[in-house]
Amino acid sequence: VTVLHQPALVGAGLGLRRGLLEPLHDIQTGKPDFLELSPENWMGIGGAWGRQLRAYTESYPVIAHGLSLSLGSTDPLDIDFIAELKAFLVEQGIQRYSEHLSYCSVDGHLYDLMPLPFTDEAVRHTASRIKQVQDMLGQRIAIENISYYAAPFKKMSEIDFINAVLSEADCDLLLDVNNVYVNSVNHAYDPEAFISALPASRISWLHVAGHAADIPDVLIDTHGTEVADSVWDLLRFTYQSIGAKPTLLERDFNYPAIDKLLAELAHIRVLQAANT
Ligand SMILES: [Fe+2]
Predict the structure, then answer these.
(1) Which residues are CB-neighbours of 215 under 8 A, at least 6 positions away?
(2) Residues of the chain where predicted confidence (pLDDT) is lower than 50
(3) At what angle do helices 120-137 and 158-169 cross, to 10 degrees?
(4) How far is the CA of 207 from the centre of ligand 1 (A)?
(5) Which helix (H) or strand (E) holds 260?
(6) pTM (predicted TM-score)
């Protein structure tokens, strides 16, 4: 298999979901600058889907966002899965990989991303697993700040927890700006102060997404609507403070016409251009 070499990541990207394969294929202008996929949705897929994927990894820079590694779990790391993942990333020429700073399994699988307890023990445990994954993959990985609705056994703040894991594991951060906004409302903190306290040099790319605000005072991170004005404002602030990092729009369901998604990518580029 030919190893693909992809250019540096810049601009505005879009999450590659099966529901977007056809619409993306037909666009002429305003294409995404890069795509992001979840390996779990594509590993071991051959046939027509596999050929379509290959066409995308040959024509776009593609990055990967994992779902099932369960970095914070007390279950053993799935060594076989990591070996398969590595082969998939090499085969598709995917050079960047991220996972959630969370756990999703306890003796099997929970179908949600659970927040880790913000404790020293969880920092050490999770950081050592991130290091193991980086060793096995032979590359640095980025971990993503998740949205959470309860903080069990909390001994430190979320920002201190994230920063401790980043430094102990010596890994990068995928900064999800929507998750910072959602958490800042649900847990009553200042989102700009939070972003300012992160190590800018470790932030490799950003996520933005839509959230639901159906219940008073509680925001739910859904990835099913357009990006909210308050999140655009926080993205602008983020670019002003850390520079115009590559930014991916996550849209997981409830797809509008592709033009609407491309318009959101165009808006990302406008904000980026104001800070380069
Ligand atoms: Fe995200």
Answers:
(1) none
(2) 1
(3) 40
(4) 5
(5) helix 258-273
(6) 0.94
